[in-house]
Amino acid sequence: MPRDPRTLLAGAGLRPRKGSSQNFLVAQPIARTMARACVHDDEVGRARVIEIGAGTGALTRLLAERACELVAIERDPNLIPLLVRELEGTCARVLQGDAVKLDWGLLSGEPREGSPRVICGNLPYAVTGALLRLAVDRCREVDRVVFMVQSEVAQRLTAAPATPAFGALTVFVQAAFDVRRLLRVPPGAFHPPPAVTSAIVELVPLRPPRARETEAFRDVVHAAFQSRRKMLRNAWRPLVRDPAVLEKAAATAGIALDARGETLDVEAFARMASALERQSEP
């Protein structure tokens, strides 16, 4: 059973570093729920897991009881000795490093049937976007991603078209993953309590994905949301030299150029990107 992070920090003479967005999970029921989301009951003893931001090991210890292979990444060098002591005798390997530069190849070997590759963590707010981008880029290398994020971010990840939270982040993540919001996490679940509510989200890679993230796909998505109130005709105009090309591509994709980007689903963006690529072919 993991020990209370407040006790561990006090015993090591450490305090949470506000500048590093250190909010340590202290609610054990929530930690247990997250551990079960990372490693399902029928996967115990077979899952291979990387945890981002292991902190004092509140989640890590629970993961070590369920995984066959566990790499715990922590950026703060002051926490490494504490983690090593807490995880002694478990399957966990502790590494000090920056999660944004994470080598997802730390999960050994190729995909194995019944042995899911899982990335998880209570994400520092400042690097949430970068780590979600990394997850999208490396989605083919994992079988499940379970992140603790701000509730506002969870809303964006699960948003539907034509809702206020729907945006570029939604499109890129939903193109690669099936996204589920699992649990609301109140500020009091952390030490110190953050100023925002959090949520646990599960991202399961879509195979095949809803859209292939090409340069053209990135361009049409970014342009559509750069000025949300612009009609697509104006938002996408900088992407082509000839307005007739834009009109023809939109007609091919079945998209009305007097609509706004927030009304399109992932597949519509993919169709537009494909139509523009075909129009630009010599």
What would your notes on this structure say?
The protein is an alpha/beta fold and 282 residues long. The protein folds into two domains: 5-205, Rossmann fold (3-Layer(aba) Sandwich), CATH 3.40.50; 215-280, rRNA adenine dimethylase, C-terminal domain (Helicase, Ruva Protein, domain 3, Orthogonal Bundle), CATH 1.10.8.100. The chain is 36% helix and 19% strand. It contains eleven helices and nine strands. Helix 2 (28-38) crosses helix 3, helix 8 (215-226) packs across helix 11 (266-280) and helix 10 (243-253) packs across helix 11. The mean pLDDT is 92.
What proportion of the residues form beta strands (DSSP E)? 15-25%
Shape: elongated
Overall average pLDDT: 92
**CATH topology descriptor of the largest domain:** Rossmann fold
SSE map:
Blueprint: H1 5-11, E1 24-25, H2 28-38, E2 47-52, H3 58-64, E3 67-74, H4 80-86, E4 92-96, E5 117-122, H5 128-137, E6 144-150, H6 151-158, H7 168-176, E7 177-185, E8 190-191, E9 198-205, H8 215-226, H9 232-236, H10 243-253, H11 266-280
Parallel strand pairs: 2-3, 2-5, 3-4, 5-6
Antiparallel strand pairs: 1-8, 6-9, 7-9
Helix pairs in contact: 2-3, 5-7, 8-11, 10-11
Task: Provide tags for this entry.
282 residues; alpha/beta; Rossmann fold; Helicase, Ruva Protein, domain 3; seven-stranded mixed beta sheet; 11 helices; 9 strands
Summarize the structure.
The chain has 282 residues and is of the alpha/beta class. It is built from eleven helices and nine strands.
